Amino acid sequence: MACVEEDLRAAGLRVTRPRLAVLAEVSAHPHADVDTIATAARARLGSVSTQAVYDVVHALTDAGLLRRFQPAGSPARFELATGDNHHHLVCRACQRIVDVACATGAAPCLQASDDAGYLLDEAEVTYWGLCTTCRASEPEPSRTT
User: Fold this and answer.
1) Domain 2-77: which CATH class?
2) Distance (Å, rounded) from C-alpha 30 to C-alpha 2?
3) Does the first or last residue of the chain, that is N or C, have fewer Cβ atoms within 10 Å of its Cβ?
4) How far apart are CA 91 and CA 139, in angstroms?
5) How far is the C-alpha of 88 from the C-alpha of 98, rounded, in Å?
6) In the beta sheet, which residues pair with residue 127?
């Protein structure tokens, strides 16, 4: 816990119980949305408003301690900002999200064909498909003879 407290202070944030609870829950449940984080934080703290959790995740994201990403059609998700330049696999059926390493190395790992003068520092990639569990539960395609 001391390391988390040091990270908060180094980011210029006060160490508070809600911030510690949110960081603990995001660490335990990467890719969680705010409702999931709030429910778990309430179990940990006794009470905390959903608005307070929104305020905490935004402060932690702004401070660089959390990473926010939002797969299409999904609420924003949060994970610890590890600086490891990874992307995500999302199952279209069950919405399970898995981290996947960047295929080409250092950020921004993909180069735009025209950067329009921007200094690029990140590429966000989301791979969509069916996870192995959902693929196994799908009926076999019918074969006509």
Assistant:
1) mainly alpha
2) 21
3) C
4) 17
5) 6
6) 89
